[in-house]
Amino acid sequence: MTRSSLSSHSKLKRAISKSRCMRADRLVAACIAFGALAPYSAAQAESVLFELPSEPLAQALISFAVQARVSISIPRDDLPAGMKSAPVSGRMNSKDALIALLQGTGLSVEEVNATTFKLVNFPAAGETDPIFAVPTQIHLPQAPPDSFEMDTIDRLAPVIVTAVRHPAALIDLPYSVSQVDNSRIERIGARTADDIGFETVGLLTTNVGPGRNKIILRGLSDGALTGQAKSNVGVYLDDTRLTFAAPDPALELVDIAAVEVLRGPQGTMYGAGSLGGIFRMVTNAPDLNFAYGSIQAGVSTVGQSNLTGRSLEGVVNLPLVADRLAVRAVAYTRKSAGWLDNLSIGESNTNSTLKVGGRLAVEARLGNSWTARLTGVGQNIDTEDAQYVDSLLDETVRTAHLLEPHDNKFLMSSFALRGATPFGELEASLSALGHRMDDEVDATGALTSLGVDPSAVAVDRKQDDIRILDQDIRLRGVAGRFPWSVGIFASEVEKDSTSRVSKIEDGTDIYASRRREEVYEYAIYGDVTWPVATWLDVSVGGRAFIIDTTAHIQRFEPLLGISDDTTRGVRDEGLAPRLSFTVQASPDVMVFASASEGYRPGGLNATGRVFSDAHARYAADELWNYELGIKAALANDHVRVRAATFAQTWENVQTDQLLDNGFVFTGNVGNARNLGFEAEAQVLDVLNSDLVLNVTTIDPEIVTPSASLPVASDALPGAPHIIVGGSISNDWGQLFGFGIRSHVAGQFIGQANSSFLGSAATATDDYSVLNVSLQARRDAWAIDLYADNILDAEASTFAYSNLVRPGASANVTPLTPIEIGLRLKHSF
After folding, report:
1. Per-residue pLDDT for 85 more than 70?
2. Tell me, what DSSP letter sits at residue 812?
3. Can you tell me the distance from the alpha carbon of 453 to that of 451, in angstroms, rounded to the nearest whole number?
């Protein structure tokens, strides 16, 4: 929202690397990083708007590569020292622009293909091995090296992120954004958002179970339950929104180029449901030129379970028409070993989970300046039982009267089009999504106010079926004095929710409800950046929105002969602004300040005997974030630091809560504020090691409670005052022909409350988790031995247990016991 590209206004910006000592391999790495993270592979445009000043050649080539979306091959270890580029301004094709940029340098351009150029005619010097820039997408080598040394180029590369809706250098952005790239994802064996928390600051998830967890950033939590309140953190796959009023679908992080975490409200660019931030998974795009793939298999065991977990995943990339059309396919299956025993029904290892999924993407280059991509995603999660227990005194035993399975089906398709127009770069996307969740919950002893015998064994069968259709069109101007962007957005959401409580013995219905919610959202958004001085940028943006919500709610109480049928509607509209200042304190240090707003629309509850008319509607909530931060890249890029202090005000906090009568209710608990500080640091490629450290301290609390929905605790649930994490990776060189690498990651999470209301306002434990792994690689083979929670720590975590049964607040959800596993991977 602040910087539309690495543009001409980056004169004193660090511009990804120090110009005085920029090595060619760093420039190569910049192209690698950009290509890995760009959501679409773009061709050499017939005409591109360029605005490049005269600057150190290394910096100019990076800015050119980002704007033109091409890669540049440099056949020398170092660019000529002290050489500057010629200024380039106006619309032209990429080759002509590169020739103009190199005027006066003595260098010439050789066109390799439509997206790759080679610099030739270097001044005479000693011969060195050629270094090549990987084109717009990463091309995996046919035979991986026998060590992990090649990762160094990637690790020291300038980090390019796209979570701000355009490619930009992370260090130049006035946002608190972190990135975990593909090499780190593989290094830590990350599979879902839960694992990313070790590598990035201030990210937590609930511990309800696969496909049922919520992501929490900076302690902005509205509770562990997922009901009618809209998502607090937006979860995205590339540019497709995955969540509405639903938990994280827990897509496997297979063949993912990077995970980007954007903290603070992002209402301007992402709209409703992003007041906590954005969790974005960037996929590897189909490669138009190279065929390759990989297959990986694994086994694991958890705690004292006598079951064996297993996994299998594969990736294949296949060009269909060279440099024009390619397909990329991903498939995976993962069976986790259960570790809980249910004494009431006499079954062991009941909480095992089977996950099966895949992704298919087809990308086409349309002419020289347009690309199109069609993507399909499918995943099914089948969990046999819940993972809460009665007490930590025996964290492997459950006593529910029946199994509580969860089935989670996710389907998504998207189409994206991108290209150059006379007015700027156009991006258009259309996505359709279906997400269905089925649960069976032990309702024994619940809903006695409805005339139920408390001794009768009963089950509550719940189903949520969500369908989302999103359309987004953005136009971005990268030339001229004021970079800008403007977009329009339209969305249609349908959510059907049913609940049916019945006796197990004879099937007698006790309670039933049906709810259909329709939400239509329309928005216009945009931003513009004003380069006030070579060292100061000011950016302003906003999003004007209208959200119409209609709910049709039916309830039935057969034992009492009561039913009701209600249809209501509500409209929310407003403006979500953002303002930021960027100060380039030195070539290596940037300071920023920002103010931004996020929002969630209001909604409707059922009324009648269960809820009073006073609670028929819950209001929209909004959050303002005020932030002051600093970013630095020191010691020739080996040390990267980011820190920020922030103050947040949250009005009309929405929450889904379990009331004492056994019903889930959505309401507003009052106004809250949050004060915090976060810092993260990376020390890269020092003594063959990488070190990552992060710390978050927060103080969130309700400052003005709601009179109609009083809270038992003023602390936000699931929001510990301190979170500390970190990892260290070591490359140990060769052993018996294998390259050896170790990885150790740890996290400490402080104590937190579990809920706002009533007897459920108990505290979770503070706890520490330590994961270790040892990896070996030789030729096209890699093997990974790992142990998660190697100290077998025990603690009560942030989750909910039973949604309807009284006394369930005394239950706890323990950490997963120690898991030991082995993975074997072959690349071809």
Report:
1. yes
2. B
3. 7
CA distance 734 to 195: 28
819 - beta bridge partners? 302, 788
Q: What angle do CA 366, 370, 372 make, to 5 degrees?
A: 70
How far from 265 is each of 97, 279, 323, 396, 439, CA to CA, in Å? 38, 12, 39, 39, 31
Torsion region of 422: left, alpha or beta (phi above 0 gives left; psi -120 to 50 gives alpha): alpha
Residue 725 pLDDT level (bands cut at 50, 70, 90): very high
Averaged pLDDT score across all residues of the chain: 82
Tokens 């490619």 -> residue: 167
H or E element: which one contains 656? strand 654-658
Query: What are the DSSP E strand ranges found in 534-587?
Result: 536-557, 562-586
Most confident of 44-58, 182-196, 528-542, 756-770: 528-542
- What is d(CA 96, CA 90) in angstroms, rounded to the nearest whole number? 11
Condensed to tens digits (0 to 9), the pLDDT of residues 769-821 reads: 999 999 999 989 999 999 999 999 998 888 777 767 655 556 788 899 999 99
Name residue 115's amino acid.
Answer: T
Tell me the pairing of strands 116-120 and 71-73: parallel
Token couple for 410? 């996710």
Alpha-carbon distance of 33 to 133, in angstroms, equals 10
Phi, psi for 411 (deg, rounded to 5): -135, 140
Residue tagged 């590369």 (tokens): 157
- Residue 416 clears pLDDT 80, i.e. is over it: yes
d(CA 401, CA 393): 20
